[in-house]
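Recall from the previous lesson that a structure prediction takes nothing but the amino acid sequence as input. Here we apply that procedure to (S)-1-Phenylethanol dehydrogenase from uncultured Desulfobacterium sp. The sequence below is the only information supplied.
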Amino acid sequence: MKLQGRVAIVTGGGRGIGRAYCLRLAKEGAKVVVADLNMENATMVAKEIENAGGVGFAWKVDVSSESETQEMAKAAIDQFGNIDILVNNAAYMAECSYKPFTAYTVEEWERCFAVNVKGAWLCTKAVVPSMMNNGKGKIINISSGTIFAGIPMLLPYISSKGAIAVMTRSMARELGEYYINVNCLSPGYVAGTEGAQAMAGKPPGMEEALSSLQCIQRQQTPDDLVGTLIFLASDDSDFITGQLIEVDGGLQMP
Ligand SMILES: NC(=O)c1ccc[n+]([C@@H]2O[C@H](COP(=O)([O-])OP(=O)(O)OC[C@H]3O[C@@H](n4cnc5c(N)ncnc54)[C@H](O)[C@@H]3O)[C@@H](O)[C@H]2O)c1
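The prediction returns the following tokens.
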């Protein structure tokens, strides 16, 4: 087990790719805080972890709220003593419409940035004091392969995911002196999650077209991402920081 006794927070851990991260982190021995806006889903994932013999703890958070992210960090410390790993995975994605940028409202834009960009910043801000105290930490931001492709009709989402990729570099420079690594994992199109479902079939044939452009020509699943996530969360990646790692079967080669 690569992460025995470590404490990990996964935002948006209640379903989809975040759930897969939680289950694998727990399997590697981490105590996992499953943090999600949807407490019912978070509780189910925490139970799944416990049923498999791991340690899971469900917590309700809206990552766009500073007070709630501070409470989340405090709850993790009260429960487990410290925080070693943060996965900034929660996203405003399922709610995204697929439409021209002229049709997005200011409210949609602001909510997207509040969750995807401000949320990742606030969660990181909340956990960093514990990591500084430990003299070590791992922050894994989640971007998206869409940022390299100029995908149309998703302007707020794609812009927010570009911001996360850039934020990663700046955070890595500020936190290196504390031996806190900040990296960014960039998935390709993972069909089947509720987030991805919101975009399924738009435009028609998109899934098939993407798969055919990959070197490895099959659809990506959440489990395709967990190996890289564990690597970035473990000591094996101690000298890697500020990097964006594309996990997409060779679709993009940025
Ligand atoms: N599915 C894909 O094809 C794909 C591709 C590239 C990147 N990603 C990224 O991977 C991550 C997970 O994607 P997914 O498909 O599993 O998404 P999803 O929509 O299925 O799950 C997102 C989770 O985040 C939670 N969440 C939403 N807003 C929140 C908030 N304000 N506070 C706390 N939790 C909140 C939701 O309740 C949900 O559990 C996202 O960051 C997404 O941008 C996904």
